[in-house]
Write a structure and sequence with these properties.
Bound molecules: S-adenosylmethionine
Strand content: 25-35%
Distance between the termini: 28 Å
Number of helices: 7
Largest sheet: 7 strands, mixed
Length: about 280
């Protein structure tokens, strides 16, 4: 797809607006919800297991690209890793800082664009979770992976993931792409977030979808309604394999749905890739 700087700016602006609107309330909800904690814990267990399986030396320093509210870096910091998280949306970085302080862990948290990571040979492992499909275009995906490659030490590990476009079961991404809408309600003590996602545009040749997202938030500080737009791009297993190879990564393996042991009947809602700096 040809590079269009206006589209890039539009995508980043829309993404920032959405994550700014929901950041604070997602944190409020996560504190009150067991399910969110359990999902993150399962993912942290997977990450540690991948570090142990893939590492040629002990993983100590971890970079999380597009760390959001910091759930992975803060979780890993609790488990003894030295962590740095970076996210494009300053409001999310701020929330992550508040959570890290509240939980008494030290994590370096910075605002920054994934395509502009400035590190070189500094980390044993990097994460790029739930972000690749949000990057505006091919150039940004390739740049981000190259920057992550450079940030890693020799034999460093990257864990990244995408939603599988062939999965047609329940889930926001598959419902949005295949049915055209998704409604989800999450609640915890005193906070309820209802999200109504409607596919607005779908460009089937390049696999680019724009969604209109209405977030209805009931929280102790009142009722809020936010209307946002977000672009998502569809990637298959082969796309990610090629991007990783092009960036220089080796020993690339894919684990459906964060399962270390291959399930008998994989549903593969999410494709999680573990790879090593060559
Ligand atoms: C779906 S959230 C994922 C957050 C976290 N990695 C997780 O798995 O919980 C996507 C995050 O990507 C961030 N983001 C979007 N575009 C970005 C970019 N170009 N560079 C860095 N972060 C970006 C958003 O601010 C948001 O926090």
């Amino acid at each position: 797809m040809s590079r269009n700087e206006n589209t890039r700016e539009t995508v980043l602006k829309a993404s920032r607006a959405y994550y700014t609107h929901v950041a604070y309330y997602e944190d409020q909800l996560a504190q009150r919800q067991r399910r969110a904690t359990e999902t993150t814990k399962r993912q942290l267990d997977f990450l540690e297991s991948a570090f142990r399986t893939y590492a040629t030396h002990q993983v100590r320093e971890v970079l999380d690209v597009a760390c959001g509210n910091g759930r992975h870096v803060i979780g890993l910091a609790h488990r003894g890793y030295r962590c740095t998280g970076q996210d494009y949306t300053p409001e999310r970085v701020q929330i992550a800082k508040v959570i890290a302080k509240r939980e008494g862990v030290s994590v370096k948290l910075l605002q920054g664009d994934a395509t502009r990571l400035e590190y070189q040979n500094e980390f044993d492992a990097a994460l790029a979770l739930h972000i690749i499909f949000l990057l505006p275009d091919d150039v940004d995906v390739a740049k981000t992976l190259r920057r992550i490659y450079r940030a890693l030490r020799s034999s460093g590990i990257l864990v990244c993931n995408v939603y599988n476009p062939f999965y047609k079961g329940e889930g926001w991404f598959s419902n949005l792409i295949h049915k055209g809408f998704h409604v989800e309600e999450s609640h915890g003590r005193g906070v309820r977030i209802t999200t109504i996602c409607r596919r607005q545009d779908f460009e089937p040749i390049h696999g680019v979808a724009w969604a209109q997202e209405t977030s209805i938030i009931e929280a102790p500080d009142g009722l809020h309604v936010f209307r946002d737009h977000e672009q998502s791009r569809l990637f298959t297993y082969w796309d990610i394999l090629h991007y990783l190879q092009a960036a220089g990564f080796k020993e690339i393996r894919c684990y459906p749905d964060w399962k270390i042991k291959p399930p008998k009947k994989p549903k593969a809602k999410e494709l999680v890739f573990v790879s090593r700096k060559g």
